[in-house]
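Suppose a colleague, Dr. K., hands you the sequence of a protein chain of 522 amino acids and asks what its three-dimensional shape might be. Before reaching for any lab equipment, you can write down a predicted structure in token form. Begin with the sequence itself:
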Amino acid sequence: MSGDKGFIGSIDQGTTSTRFIIYDHHARSVGSHQVEFTQYYPEAGWVEHNPMEILESVKLCVAKAVDKATADGHNVDAGLKAIGLTDQRETTVVWSKSTGLPLYNAIVWMDARTSSICMRLEKELSGGRTHFVRTCGLPISTYFSALKLIWLMENVDAVKEAIKKGDALFGTIDTWLIWNMTGGVDGGLHVTDVTNASRTMLMNLRTLSWDNDVLKTLGIPAEILPKIVSNSEVIGKICKGWPIPGIPIAGCLGDQHAAMLGQACRKGEAKSTYGTGAFILLNTGEEVIKSGHGLLTTIAYKLGPEAPTNYALEGSIAIAGAAVQWLRDSLGIIQKASDIEELAKQVETTGGVYFVPAFNGLFAPWWREDARGVCIGITRFTNKAHIARAVLESMCFQVNDVLDSMNKDVGEKGTVKSEKEFLLRVDGGATANNLLMQIQADLLGSAVVRPADIETTALGAAYAAGLAVGFWKEEDIFESGEKAKNAAAMFKPVLDEETRKKKADSWAKAVEKTFNLADLSI
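The predicted structure, expressed as tokens, is then:
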């Protein structure tokens, strides 16, 4: 790759852990550190994080990664050119401008407490659930930040008071981190990027600015919202009190958009990220495609203030790796997440068991807040290995459902799945599971390609920052993406078509069984 030598740092603030990775000029990691942080479940369907704990986790990861890289002989202090930031998107924070303290815990993207607000809006607004789709590409759902913000405004006195006094600031996790990293109460910058903004349900997809009509309809005051910037530009410098003061923050993307860039997805190319949830995005270029099959229209990336905007179709799956954590933490079937592969390999099939992890409802393409998890097909023969394998299959079936919807949406404009040469690019921690990847290829009927470096989310944020400061050029990134495919692991389908279809039909029946199971009155 061309450009000056040195390093780019990347903060990857995820749903269950935070990491900081330092990349050299060849996009190789020279130092990293990762920490998990606390998940809070105050009530059924509620998920919260402590924003201060997240802030401290970022500080710790940056310091430790710099120490590790320095210990290995890399002069990071002198050579760090910029950092990029990627985050868990819709998770919502409101804090005090004067004290810098959160006014409530962060409400996490998968939190379902806003079900009643969603139902209320669907009844009140013309078009029901799809009322805002034309403007922001998103249906009314518990998933998006605007609904979480409304809940905070209606239910938390401290938030109501701060808004009244002009002391409240709203943001997703990227906004919270950047504000603190650039000074906090002492001149911190209140910004977000186009990809995170596109997930609030408040940004107009075409103008890339907050939509006044939407704000008025929802009763959200514009003055608490951050400024929207592109994904690749110098936003500000890290303030004193942080491990790397003076270094520019030059890239910011939501995690799934960062993964798209890390995978070098051009127009017509799709990727699936397997983490706590699973997220499939198809780059549709500069065209905004409205989905008729349960997908979201969103931003792919915008690599500079004057750069063209790439759009995407997205299918979001709430529970993927989180189901493995559930097996570990709630049922005790496995001791650690990685144990699931060996356990599931003890059986050749699920023995007719199907598991649908609709713990807090179903996202794309179903959008059913009333769905709850089911495990069906159980017999006396069923053992924990069958359950483990059914959990892995559930991730893959959900990805298939999304890809089928993408295929229908793009129609003649481009094919996602039906061409034999289609390759699904995959990334995220769960892709280290070879059995999962083989199951995905088998149930999809197409090849699955896993890059040598599966942490493409952090890499995408690094790329965005590197572009902004001239460390890399766009052609470097997309050429490196082609080279990375050559070093990737490829999983090819071996399941026969008849079995694949039978399993898909049984899965569809299992999904239907999840509907109308939730008591949404509580």
